[in-house]
Amino acid sequence: MNHQVLAYQIADSIDIKAFKSAFKAELYYGDADELFYQTEHDGFIYIFKYGVVSFLNYDAISISDFLRLIKPYSKNFFDESLSDEYSIETGAAENKIGYNSIQIIRPDVEVYRLIMLNVSQSVALDHYSNQTTKLLEETNQYTQQLETCGRLKISNINLTRYIGKTLLLKNRITENLYIFDAPPETWDDENLNKINNELKRTFDLQERFRNIQEGLNIVRDNLELFRAMLQYRNSNMLEWVVLILILVEVLDIFWEKIFK
Description:
By secondary structure, the protein is α+β, with helices and mostly antiparallel strands. It has two domains: about 1-120, TATA-Binding Protein, CATH 3.30.310; about 120-260. The chain is built from six helices and ten strands. It has helices at about 15-20, 60-70, 110-150, 155-175, 190-205, 205-260, and strands at about 1-10, 15, 25-30, 35-40, 45-50, 50-55, 75, 80-90, 95, 100-105. Helix 3 (about 110-150) runs antiparallel to helix 4 (about 155-175). The chain is elongated, with a radius of gyration of 27 Å.
């Protein structure tokens, strides 16, 4: 029997606590970071605080209805969401994992949950990779200015805003990168652990995770340089203000002596 997993990055984050109080379907598993619901007709919904919702055995209309339902609990809901899909085939002779599908011996809720988790993490990595790329592109614009002009052609207030925006996004990405650790359920179950490891290799999660970290490290190093230049610029400006005030004071004294 074939089943379809569809995962969507719909927002920057989802208020898990508020949605849990409002949504009354059967909760199979839940904590502060995620909610896993089992619904009718062997349907499953997996919700993550980092803005991803994953569906198993849901049609397009039901998915659209649910996304409208969860939108009020989402921060910065996306008009166009990133998505990924993965097929599950049950009744296979042995477990076999491919790039677009997995074959498993028998239906198992924990295996379903593990597959949905990995597909959701893949979508989240796509989102964070896009955000990191945007940070790097903006940062490169300023480093190119340094190369060609020898200075940053941006006002102090705009540079401060850019640093603040970049740090906010960097912190949000870093805050949620913990999600790619192995779930506790795999620690004591050899079958789940094997499926989890093979899925991570199939989706290349660890390599993509490292690439994001490396990109964030580059952004961090550039931000430290920009902040140092901003401090130097402000220090120079303060020195000029002091010199101008001294000059004004000297001219005032000179003026008084001449016209007394």
